[in-house]
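Thread: Modeling a multi-component assembly for a lab meeting

Hi all, long-time lurker, first post. My supervisor asked me to bring a structural picture of a complex we are working on to next week's group meeting, and I have zero experience with this. I have the sequence lines for every component (851 residues in total). Could someone generate the structure of the whole assembly? Inputs are pasted exactly as I received them:
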Amino acid sequence: MLSAELLIQSVMFGFLQGGLYALASLGLMITWGVLRLVNVAHGEFLMVGAYASYWALTLMKGVAITTQVAAALLTSALLGLGLALLLYFSVIKQLAKVEVLASLLGLFGLSLIMINIIILIWTVDVRGVVLDFGYVTIGPVTLIGSRLVAFMIAIVLVGFLFLFLYKSYWGSALRAVMQNRRAAALVGINMDAIYMLGFTIGIVLASIAGGLVSWSIAHVEPFMGGAYTLKSFAIVLIGGVTNPVGILISAITFAAIESVFAVLTDPVYSMALALAVIVSAIVVRGEKLFG
Amino acid sequence: MTRVSVLKATGMSKKFGGVTAVDNVDIEVGRSEAVGLIGPNGAGKTTLLNMLSGLIKPDRGHVELEGKSVDGLRPHQLMRKGLARTFQIPKLFKQMTVLENVLVPLASTDMDGAAMHSKAAKLLKLVGLAGMENMLGSELSGGQQKLLEIARALTTEPKIVLMDEPLAGVHPQIKETILSTISDMKKGGVSFLIVSHDVKTITSISDRLVAMSSGKKIADGVPTEVMLSAEVVESYLGV
Amino acid sequence: MAKHIRLVSPIRPLELTPITALTAVLIAVPFVLTTYQTSITFEILRYAILGMALNLFYGLLGYVNFGQVAFYGLGAYATAVSVIVGVPLFLAPFVGGLIVAGLAYLLSLPLLRTRGIYFAIATLGLAETIRLSFLKIPFLGGSYGLVLHTSYQLVEAYYTLLAIFASLLAVTYLILKSSIGVELRAIREDEEAAESMGVNTVKYKRLVFTLSGFYTALAGGVFAWLSTYVNPETVFQTLTTIEMYIVVLIGGAGTMLGPVVGGIIFYISKINLLVNYPELHFLMFGALLTITVRLAPRGIVGGLEQYVRMRRIAKLRGRRA
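Re: Modeling a multi-component assembly
Sure thing. I ran the full set together rather than chain by chain. Output:
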């Protein structure tokens, strides 16, 4: 029933989706690795970024498409930045010091607040603006232009992230803290600054990913966050919490598998797949993932 | 004279990733004997202790308690068999009271409530913490926490107590209390295996010393002998 | 394996008075109040039970189970299926509860090999998988669920719930007063140290997980009895798990009466909210959760207990000085 053509098509489709997943997951990796904060509200930040970008696009109807993309990108990034800073100083800083498990609940509460605020402004209707980039045909495979562009933007951003993490002082400091908190503090790294930086970057990445979703997948609704949170966790757990390259690879692989599964069976089952992966990964690898 | 062996471990080995933490170490502690375990940082002393107390599974090795094998037993089972331990940084139950801290090991025994309370009170008196029953673990000073840690370990009348740096960073007065508690317990038939940096003090209460370096045992014998051994001196002066 | 429960703290009649008074009042409710008011009390009891059951695991043991609602939904379904195959209505919730207890025990074997955050996410994932499965499994009704062809029996269901509530109170009280309570709290404080001090951590974690699941399932079963209808969207909502945590947190995790107080406050607030500001109810839940965690992590009863403790210590110190 599954022709080779359909298979390749769905793999490629998933591949493109993987770029977005990678962006979101890397954001989760940073908040988790740097702040030891298990951000169960991660998907909601993505969702909020999606709405911000959607809003910008509704204001820019008729403008050149590249400007639209730029505007969407900028809006979601700025919102992510503002939200991160606001939340960091009011809630997160203290939450990170509280017993880890209590902070989980606090973050859950935050996610509910964000969802409700979005519902008040935009209702529960599904939204999205499809930007028309046409189609690209490579051999037997036809790719939707907007998804390809979103993928490319995501990859470029991931590239910048890698450059930052591996070639800049602050990026290396971030990685040091992710790997060994105590040692990093002893070496003289400004922990407060790192926490703030880590949290902000993590949230901004999520919110930009959301922005890309709003015009490529173009399915935005207040409850979309949960799925992204779970998938990001699955990807981070498989790839390794301190391993950005691993996460990138596992994001794309995950998306490809998910896509094939969705074609073969039911979208509901693809969700169940993500969950089965997380649960098994956790139970089998347990705490050795983190140390 | 055949020494009655309380704890006998042979061939203990553990690797973490690529690093060999403990390499084929044999160690034995007799009844009423205090053995000091010395060595520079990273020698593998704490890892060895963790294996002996069941917290880490050894890659290889065999442990016997009073002649019977205890391989693979979990820490709580080892405790029931008479092996107790203290931790370098006291792992007290901070939000529980001093009394409750000492009750925990008793809770898993068959004693009834009144017996548990009187036992706990007795032990707290022994280490000089009587009167502080209702204070929370977190409210004690560092030295008091160490004392509580020890009281807790002694509660189930162990046959051997593994101690990790019991004297580190402790007020001289409390040090005295700890040392005298150890020597009193020894007279009562309890054995000790004590990891310590403070070689001088540990020598004063140890019947034997075992020295480790880079995971291997490099000396085992009477304190004066061990302290004079070339390898031991080098291990401390070297890297 | 005879588990003999030894009391470590004495039973104080003073502590028992509020509970007995409360139970007496609750017994009288169906006679004294209207049907509507009785159903409100039913709901409060339901939340109190869910809170107390969660309290055993989260409050006493310190583990966060983000999939707690799964026990509830499974209990509801197991009860519904029991009724459909012919089990008498008043026994059905207990049959359902026992089935779920068995399941909970089996699940505890792999799940409790993880701790902390990992356990929380694993349980969340598992609960969601269960919900999705129930949406799809045809012979369990799929998204339409199952219908019990029975009538609305508020009084019978109410008294069953009350009995469950009373037994859970008793269980919690005994645990807190006994050696088991000491061992559980030790695990919560420092699992490694507890294990090293002779506490069989694995046994207790599994026991409490199963007990918590059992009582949660009982509540789900009685709910199924009362609503005569179960479907995945109603009984497997993640929001229910959040509600359970709010109940425990507001009241005070680890205390006996905390979840009861929390249940009352929570449910009253919830109906008020739904009536007056339905569009804000997520926000209020979320705010409640975040604020409680941040500002009042001990909850009402917990805070009271701490205050009393502080006063006692200060008096002792003052006396000695």
